[in-house]
Design a protein that fits this description.
Blueprint lengths: L8 H13 L1 H12 L8 E6 L4 E6 L2 E2 L1 H5 L4 H4 L3 E6 L8 E4 H17 L7 E4 L5 H13 L2 E4 L6 H10 L4 E5 L2 E3 L2 E3 L1 H9 L7 E5 L13 E3 H7 L9 E2 L3 E7 L7 E6 L1 H14 L7 E4 L6 H13 L3 E5 L10 H9 L3 E4 L1 H8 L4 H4 L8 E5 L5 H11 L6 E4 L33 E4 L11 E7 L9 E2 L3 H8 L7 E9 L5 E6 L3 E4 L2 E4 H9 L4 E11 L3 E10 L8 H15 L8 E4 L13 H8 L16 H8 L3
Parallel strand pairs: 4-17, 6-7, 6-8, 7-14, 8-11, 11-12, 16-17, 16-18, 18-19, 19-20, 29-30
Antiparallel strand pairs: 1-2, 3-13, 4-5, 9-10, 14-15, 15-23, 21-22, 22-24, 24-25, 26-27, 28-29
The structure holds adenosine-5'-monophosphate-propyl ester.
Length: about 625
């Protein structure tokens, strides 16, 4: 039996038991047998959730790119590492072999070095889904610079906040990006962001859409000529196991985004091991994750996890609806995709189109289907299972988070019997707990509570960049000696988990985490706005959509409401990005408040979701009379 590759349910239980009885011995074996190290560790794990501090593979030395690239060269040099599928299907796909990827990463690392980037420096990457994105991520890792990829749908303000938070020295971007039939002026957004970023020394610009852009002398450099001149060897920097590999920002319920910091060794071991098992990847398989590398799913399951296993991973630049709603299925057929990993929101959007587009394509290559990012509703699950998987390909509903680095609760395909809407069983090494509101663990089955994790796993984020106290307060303070996920969950009669959703003020819209506070802050900047409260409400494609209740200042009362709605959504787009726009905006004379002046979002959530029969007692509010008025005026 190989602990690295689990092939049936009995094996899962055996390996799981081993992994929780003696986690150190278990991960020691996995790390030793399946990765290359410059130096082995002195100690597998030391941890203390009260500080909190977690260290895996202490004092080991490695470079993750040697595991993702160099070690494959003797056996997989000519194997395709990345298939790049462009936005426009008429443009040819690119097949980049492991040898070519290695050379391109080394060249890029030399360019970074020439521009003064050193181990430990932060480099912000703001690129569309083109090969340069994966290559720049790996080049940073090769040189030991900490990459901070910012999703290229974020606004200039959101970008500058992230650049300044980690004090990045360089930005890597492109002249623009394609998104379906549109182009986006990425370089213009970077220029605007950099007006507020005094510490950026250089900007590297990849050419993608051949648009006319302005280049600032001394600061901006076209990437291609630099790469052409660069040497194609670069000795990887030796990194300590616990050196930061990257920062990735995620929304919190309050305050600015949290820069989650991931480690080099633990993250590598965990993403590689989960990838192998959750997708049951076999040597000649073609694997495709539709996420953007700007999110954790792309980091872990487009780049690092697949490449550490020598896999072929597809990178898709476009959108599911261009040139038509058959695009995903066209790509599956064209590249004979074996594992397909996407978000429930995409499934719902495609299911809305019926099966016309699906039926035109040969999907017989598919073996495993995956979902991630939000709960999948039963209808979408069945549609996916019947029409895409033809009831033959197991669906892995994978629950995890930016903070966890890799998949935490998931079926193992062909082993774990699946159950619609259930993420099912904890992955190897993961020890979940459901907690009640008094801080006690709820034991047994058929129970519901707040989802925590009791024991460290190698992929856990080690801190929030520049704010360890916030890391402690957010994840380790609600429950003693536990990592608190912010999610609620149920455990059924056989021990399967079903994630019920966030229990804090984070709302997941189309699979993207959005904190309510930053959106409210953006709205409140509008000169006509007095106060605002954002809640989520059910949406048939997005999962949840945003509903804003807004009170106006006296001066705003006479303004046209439709114009105000447009201005407010524009403000949100400018401050955060179009993903945070509100679907509904209700202007109201007052917001329900507790006697201490806190807005009662619970009541607003029920009203937005048409559950006014479940409001509970509102008589203790400071202003109970506003509730009925809000209901009467609901959109
Ligand atoms: O609420 C959970 C939801 O997404 C949150 C994490 O979001 P993010 O850090 O952006 O990472 C998304 C990709 C890993 C979780 O706290 N979530 C994620 N996967 C699932 C899910 N909710 C239900 N089922 C899932 N499979």
């Amino acid at each position: 039996m190989s602990n690295y590759h689990i092939k049936h349910l009995e094996e899962y239980y055996q390996v799981y038991r081993k992994s929780v009885r003696n986690p150190e011995q278990f991960w020691d074996e996995i790390a030793e047998e399946h990765f290359v190290w410059r130096k082995k560790w002195d100690n597998v794990l030391s941890w203390d959730f009260t500080k909190p501090e977690v260290k895996w593979f202490e004092n080991a030395k490695l470079n993750i790119t040697e595991n993702c690239l160099d070690r494959h060269l003797p056996t997989r040099g000519d194997k395709t590492a990345i298939i790049f599928e462009p936005n426009d299907p008429k443009e040819q796909a690119q097949h980049i072999t492991y040898s070519q990827l290695h050379a391109r990463v080394c060249k890029f690392a030399n360019v970074l070095k020439d521009k003064g980037i050193k181990k430990g420096d932060r480099v912000c990457i703001y690129l569309p889904m083109i090969p340069e994105l994966a290559i720049s991520v790996l080049a940073c890792a090769r040189i030991g610079a900490i990459h901070s990829v910012v999703f290229a749908g974020f606004s200039a303000t959101a970008l500058s906040t992230r650049i300044n938070d980690c004090d990045a020295k360089m930005v890597i971007t492109s002249d623009g990006s394609y998104r379906g039939s549109k182009t986006i002026d990425l370089k213009g957004i970077v220029d605007e962001a950099l007006e507020d970023c005094p510490n950026i020394d250089s900007v590297l610009v990849a050419k993608r859409i051949n648009s006319k852009i302005s280049m600032k002398d001394g600061r901006d450099h076209w990437l291609q000529p630099l790469l052409e001149d660069a040497h194609q060897d670069f000795t990887a920097e030796v990194m300590d196991a616990e050196d930061a590999l990257f920062i990735l920002y995620t929304s919190g319920s309050t305050g600015k985004p949290k820069g989650m910091v991931h480690s080099s060794a633990g993250y590598m071991v965990y993403t590689a091991y989960t990838f192998k098992n959750v997708f049951q990847y076999k040597e000649d398989d073609i694997y495709w994750c539709t996420a953007d590398i700007g999110w954790i799913t792309g980091h872990s399951y487009i780049v690092y996890g697949p490449l550490a296993n020598g896999a072929t991973t597809v990178m898709f630049e476009g959108v599911p609806s261009y040139p038509d709603f058959g695009r995903f299925w066209d790509i599956v057929q064209k590249h004979k995709v074996n594992q397909f990993y996407t978000a429930p929101t995409a499934i719902r959007a495609l299911a809305k189109q019926g099966t016309e587009y699906v039926d035109k394509h040969d999907l017989s290559s598919l073996k495993v289907l995956g979902t991630v990012g939000e709960p999948i509703n039963e209808e979408a699950w069945h549609w996916y299972n019947e029409n895409i998987g033809k009831k033959k390909s197991p669906i892995v509903d994978t629950w995890w988070q930016t903070e966890t680095g890799g998949i935490m609760i998931t079926p193992i395909p062909f082993s774990t019997p699946t159950k619609p809407t259930y993420a099912t069983l904890p992955f190897i090494g993961i020890q979940p707990a459901l907690m009640d509101e008094n801080g006690d663990e709820i034991k047994g089955n058929q129970v519901e509570g707040r989802l925590c994790i009791k024991y460290p796993w190698p992929g856990i984020a080690r801190t929030i960049w520049g704010d360890h106290q916030r890391y402690k307060d957010t994840y380790f303070s609600a429950y003693k000696n536990m990592y608190f996920t912010g999610d609620g969950a149920m455990r059924d009669e056989v021990g399967y988990y079903r994630i019920t959703g966030r229990v804090d003020d984070v709302i997941i819209v189309s699979g993207h985490n959005l904190g309510t506070a930053p959106i409210e802050d953006a709205i409140n900047e509008h000169q006509a706005v007095a106060e605002s409260a954002i809640v989520g409400f059910p949406h048939d494609v997005k999962g949840s959509a945003l509903y804003g209740y807004i009170t106006l200042k006296d001066s705003g009362e006479s303004r046209n409401h439709d114009n105000l709605r447009k201005e407010i959504n524009q403000l949100i787009t400018d401050r955060i990005g179009p993903i945070a726009k509100l679907d509904k905006i209700q202007f109201t004379n007052g917001l329900p408040k507790t006697r201490s002046g806190k807005i009662m979002r619970r009541i607003l959530r029920k009203i937005a979701s048409n559950e006014t029969d479940k409001l509970g007692d509102t008589s203790t509010l400071l202003n109970p009379e506003v509730v009925q008025r809000i209901i009467d005026e609901k959109l």
